[in-house]
Every structure is written in structure tokens, then in C-alpha cells.
Amino acid sequence: MPDYQTIDAGRQTIAVRKDLRVPMRDGVTLATDVYHGTEELPRPALVALSPYGKELQALALTTPPQRRPSPMWDGCIEAGDTARIVDEGYAHVIGDLRGTGASEGEHIGNYNAGGVSLGQDAYDYIEWVAAQPWCDGNVGMVGISYFGSMQVLAAAERPPHLKAIFVSGGHFDFYETTYHGGVMWFMPRAAREGRGGDSGWAFTDRVTSRMLESFSPEEITARVAARLADPDVAAWPNLVHLLHYPKHHEAWFDIVMNELDSDWYEERNPITLAPNVDIPVWLQIDQGRGWTMDGTIELFNELKGPRKLTIGPYPPMQSRPFVEEHDKMFRWYDYWLKGIDNGVMDEPAVSVFVEGSRETATGDQWPPRDVEYRSLYLRPRRKLTPEPETMGTAYAAPDGFYQAPLTVTDKVEILQWSTDAFEEATELIGTGAAHIFAEIDQPDTNFIMRLWDESPGGARQLVTTGFLKASHRELDERTTHGNPYHPHTRAVPVEPGSVEEYVLRLYPFATTFRPGHRLVVELSNDEPLADAHNALLPPDAFHLPVGRPVTHKIYRDATHPSRLVLPFTTYG
């Protein structure tokens, strides 16, 4: 009698091993389900690890893939297409992380920061899988987003039987996961609490707060009071509730309490750990993902072993259950886990889909083509031109807008500048910068910039975004022309009434403006409530609004050359 159950998955029968217990080195066991073919033979295994619950991942067998804006899209069904994984001759091994789902142990804070390293657990888990009779000793990993981040944490520990990884849609800089340019982003709340299209973590009573464990009640009270002194936080009911009742969602509490970048984030940052990764890595991300594209490229640049980078087309959110990119993944694993010489390593290391032209740019590095940084200047009458303004402030009066808090208005004020229609196809690939000379009448605000490709008929597609909290305007030594970096290690209030230069990082992108199209740039201090791009995102994928009224004056004159610095390629 076989020691597994079977399920009918349409074109095949799948063997299922439910609720296996995988021992960790400290005696804790992790709950695991295994899916594989019914043939009595060992096969390579693809491991998926997350806090989202292995039972949720089983919906991949019964739920057709959903795309945004479908209300049935659930961001946490991310472990991959089980039926196809089995059909391709692999075992699909899905586990609950320590302190979540049916696993034992305690999960502390975000990514178990302060507890047992998730990479350490992944090492023990992978080595256990490799020793099972249904596995031939060759192990890879599978899954998007959190599952993708887990792959890098695992690889950094160098388990002997982990032969390669394929990371799709991962997020890597843990500070940038929640604070974009210092501006709090709410989607991590959805992943933890289960809101707006996300089932969330499979919480148990063993998910605890690192902050509550690290500081005395008196210190926590003082730190909470300091966070509530931020008018943006104080105006948001969910955050007020969380800060007063942290045991409701401990992991989110820890993130909200740490609004500056620090060792708290960096100690488990996969990019920090990347020098330890020596196995083959394929990184994949889609256009429109902003900070995840940024982190994916940064990770790619840090890797020392065999590596590939694929940047796919817009829109930004892949389907759930996650099924995209499996063709690439199986070519990768067939080569590295099965030893099939399919030519995958003879192809260029970097492949980038270019929006607009819908061509593919390839090369050995990012960006895959030579780039020349050129400036486009903000001009009067909402123009965006290659020529700088020649008039002084007295004649080129600043543009301005007043934004009331969203507690008292539904209107987000947006300034807009645009180029003339492009006369010939113009390709841009890389990161960029926006230099904005601004005066505000408060100690802080947000700057949110979005670049659009607008067709002659008025249809628009997002090109890239940039975010910066005004008090986080400091730049660090990594900054180069067109490629700014902010340390985010302290907040420096703005002197109201002073004109400051704010340099926004424009996240990586690849696009061609076709003849007749225009580049449109928008600037606001709050997220627009609904538009063509936001409709493709989960409801919780927005940024914390500014909680105070702010008047903004945007200077763009001969003395204050507000401008975009963009990566024009020499292709074509």
C-alpha cells in the first residue's frame, strides 16, 4: 500500500503526503504537504515556504488563475502551479514557516527578525527534503513575493542540496518593502492582516512582537507617543488602533514603530546576504512594480554566481494562484536540477521587455543598452522641455497647490507637466531622478511623482514612479547623476518657507515613446484615489496620506532648475 493519498487533477493523478513534520535543529517541527507523481521513483523537489498557510496554496489545484481587478484575486496564493510542477516531473513541497499555520515554534516580528533565522530553518528543511525517498537529492525553490524572498534567505545559508533558485516578484530591502522614499506603504498590512484581496498570514498565537520583547512597557509607551506625534499617523484610524493595541497584529506594529532604516531591517535583508549566495539564480520581475524592480536589480548586481535577470511587461500584478513564468522556471530547473542541456545558459544574462515598442532588449548587465542621461525641465504653462528656463523667479512664478488632509476632502491635488508629442521613437531604459525645488509651509510633506506614456487619443500607461518624504531628503554617498539614493536613517524637518531641492529616485523602467505620444509627469503629496494604474493594484496598495494641510510652491526658473534626469538609450 502506498504511504500517500491520491487526488484527481484532471489530466493526471497526484500523490499527496499531508501534514508531514519536518524537524528543525532546535526540535521545532514545521508542517508540510508534498505533491508528486504516483510513479515509484525519486525526483527533484521544488520547495515553497511562507507564513501564508499551506492549505491556501492548495487552491492552485481548484481555482483558475485570477487577474486584477478580479475581486477573487488573493495575493497570498503564491506557491506555484502544483499540477504543472508535478506534470513536469518535480515534487512540490509546501511548508508553513515557524510560528505560522500548523507549524510549531515562535515567529517574532517581520520575517522572524529577532527569532530563529528563517534561512536557518530553510537549510534544515531543504536538507530534510533531499533525504526523502521521493526526492533524488536535487532541490530548487518556487514561489513569488514572500516565497521569492525566502529563496534568497535559504540560498545565503548554502544548504548543500539546494542547487539553484528561480525568484519571481521577490521583495528584498525590507525597509523599502514598507517605506517608499520614507512614505509608508500599506500593502504589507494586507499581507499580514488579511485585507483587501489578501488572506494574510496564517496567524497563530505564536506570532509575537520583537519591539514588545525588546523594550520595557515604559519605553514602549514613550515610543508609541512619539509615533502618534506624527500627524500622518495620528490621522489614520488603523494605525492609532494598532499603536494602542499592538497585540492585535504584532508584526505590523513592529514595522510601524520603525519608520527609519536601521540594523533592524538590514540584518535580514537578502541583498545584505547576497555575497553568500553562490548557486545559480534567475531573478524575474514585471514592469510597474517600482521598488521591487529596484530591489531585484540591486540583488542581481550583488550576485557572484551564475545569474539571470528578466524584466517582463506591464501590468504589475501577476495572477493568483501564481502561474506565470513557469516556462522559464522549468527550463532553468531542467538544466540545473535534471542536467538537461537546453541552451538556457547560452542566452543573454539580462532580458528586458520594453514597453511601447514591445521589443526585448538583451545584454549582460542592467541596463542592457548604453544610456545617456538627459534632462527635461519643468517650464511655465506646464511644459516639459529639453531647454532650461531662462527667466528668473520674478518672471517664472512658481506653480503651486494646496492639499487639505483626506480626512476633510476627497480631492487629491495634482500638478502636471508634459512634453510635446515625440516626433520619432525614443527609448529610455534605467533609473532616473526628479530634482524638484519646492517651498512648503509645514515641517514635512510627501512628494509623489508618476510618469505616464500618453497616446494621441489620451489613453495612458504608467511608466514609473518616485516617492520622497520631505524630511528624508538627505542623499548618501551612493548617489550618482540620474541615480539618487537616500539613507532614510534620520528625519530632518523642513524649515517652513525655505526653498529646498528634493531629489526623488525614479524607479527602474524600460519604455519607448512612439511618435505622437507624450511624456506626462504628475506631482502630488497624496496617492490619487483611483486611476488607470491603481485599478490594477489591490485595494490596500496605497501610501499613507499626509495628515496636515500643506501649501506647496514648485519653483522652475533659471535659479531653480526643477527637472527630470532620464536614461535615454542610443539604440535605434
Automatic annotation (TrEMBL):
Q: Note whether Hydrolase occurs among the keywords.
A: yes
Q: Which GO terms describe its molecular function?
A: dipeptidyl-peptidase activity
Keywords for this entry? Hydrolase
The record's listing under SUPFAM superfamilies reads: alpha/beta-Hydrolases, Galactose-binding domain-like
Q: Indicate the segments forming the Xaa-Pro dipeptidyl-peptidase C-terminal domain, all copies.
A: 330-565
Which InterPro entries does the entry mention? AB_hydrolase_fold, CocE/Ser_esterase, Galactose-bd-like_sf, Xaa-Pro-like_dom, Xaa-Pro_dipept_C, Xaa-Pro_dipeptidyl-ppase/CocE
Q: Which Pfam families match?
A: Peptidase_S15 (PF02129), PepX_C (PF08530)
The source's domain of life comes to Bacteria
Which PANTHER family does this UniProt record tie to the protein?
A: COCE_NOND FAMILY, PUTATIVE (AFU_ORTHOLOGUE AFUA_7G00600)-RELATED, PEPTIDASE S9 PROLYL OLIGOPEPTIDASE
Name of this protein? Xaa-Pro dipeptidyl-peptidase C-terminal domain-containing protein
Species, as recorded = Allobranchiibius huperziae
